[in-house]
Amino acid sequence: MSTKAHTGHGDGGHDDHGHDSGHPESTFKGYMTGFVLSVILTAIPFWLVMSGTLGSNQATAVAILIIGAVQIVVHMIYFLHMTPSSEGGWTLMALIFTVVMVVITLTGSLWVMYHLNTNMMPMDPSQLP
Amino acid sequence: MTAITAGASAARAGAAKEEPVFYVADEHEHADGGSTLLGFWLYLMSDCLVFAVLFATYGVLGGSFAAGPSPKDLFDLPLVALNTSMLLFSSITYGFAVLEMQKNRVQPMLMWLVITGLFGAAFLGIELYEFTHMILEGATPQRSAFLSSFFTLVGTHGLHVTFGIIWMITLITQVRMFGLTDANKRRLLCLSMFWHFLDVVWIGVFTFVYLMGVLR
Questions:
Q1: pLDDT in tens, A15-60
Q2: CB spacing of B200 vs A72 below 8 angstroms
Q3: Considering only CA atoms, which of B37, B153, B80, B4 is closest in space to residue A45?
Q4: Cβ of A43: how many Cβ atoms within 10 Å?
Q5: Residue B49 pLDDT > 80
Q6: What angle do CA B19, B22, B26 make, to 5 degrees?
Q7: Residue ranges of the domains in chain B?
Q8: In A, which residues are within 8 Å of B214 by CB distance?
Q9: Nearest residue to A63 via CA among B93, B94, B215
């Protein structure tokens, strides 16, 4: 219900070009939903790592990375009020562009540097001329 | 002859008059500060790129211990969990401040802002305690590439929180002096975005640096 009110307000705000220019109203329900979800999504990864329930480190690492990504989305929606219609869609456009840049920076650096490390010949001092 | 020249120059003057104009001649009305929130969002996105580079640096250097201490020796997960909860609580209390702002209730709004600032200060206090503890153990930024990148990434986040608290104190003073004017409301919404954004970055820090570090 509250999300419908959000988008409705966003569209209206774009039409009358009013003082809050499509910035959605915050609601108590929205903040509490976001907070409860965040607490759950924070507690699970800490518990997974501290108890070692999943057994292998690799599985735990994948699980906490996925949960972290989900929590970021939760924050974006409930705390930062990202909707496709806010500011006429420009905030979402900027966000998508930034996410693309972040993914290229992170995966690019890690990928290249990992291969650089593994492809370098280990050299011990006796081999030096 | 002269008539023809005069005609030609008149035609040239006419052509000059119809030169295309490369800007909007009559700009329509914009509400005062109507684009501030979008502009601030764009700033946050550029800040996001700064953090992305620092995360990438940590990702590359995070395993280079130079025979020094590793994350397993240094990180105290219960303390990090406590720190994380401080920042999470400060996010929801800032949310309550925004809700009171929408109802134009100055005193409850100020109370929630003060509580948010205290949670932020608690976060900083715990982080500084952790840093001094590490440095006293000899795990200084100079010790290894891992520690250099760790202190740069987490320190930059802490610096952002520090400036967020300074901004919060400034706004508390502003609202007490001038009330909830349109400009102050706009500033409060900008700080709201900044504060929640820092919480988003912290999700990356505790997942990628602390939890993954202990797993390494």
A1: 334 444 445 678 899 999 999 999 999 999 999 999 988 889 999 9
A2: yes
A3: B80
A4: 14
A5: yes
A6: 100
A7: 76-216
A8: 49
A9: B215
Residue type, B78: P
Closest chain A residue to B53 measured between Cα atoms?
A: A105
Integer angstrom CA distances of residue B128 from B69, B121, B156, B166, B212 = 19, 10, 13, 17, 21
CATH 1.20.120.80 is held by the domain B76-216: yes
The shortest C-alpha distance from B117 to chain A (Å) reads: 17
Q: Residue B44 and residue B187: Cα distance in Å, rounded? A: 14
Residues of chain B with Cβ-Cβ distance to A25 below 8 Å are 102
Note whether A6 and A69 are within 8 A (CB).
no
Let me know: does B37 contact A87? Beta carbons within 8 Å. Answer: yes
Kindly state the DSSP code that residue A127 receives in the 8-state scheme: G
Show the tokens assigned to A56: 């292998």
Contact check, Cβ <8 Å, A105/B53:
yes
**Residue from the list A75, A91, A105 with its beta carbon closest to the beta carbon of B200:** A75
Q: Is B102 in Cβ contact with A25 (below 8 Å)?
A: yes
ipTM above 0.85, yes or no: no
Select from A34, A11, A128 the least CA-distant residue to A80: A34
- Model confidence band, residue A126 (pLDDT cutoffs 50, 70, 90): low
For the CA atoms of A53, A58, A59, A64, the dihedral, rounded to the nearest 10 degrees, stands at 90
pLDDT, one tens digit per residue, over B152-181 is 999 999 999 999 999 999 999 999 999 999
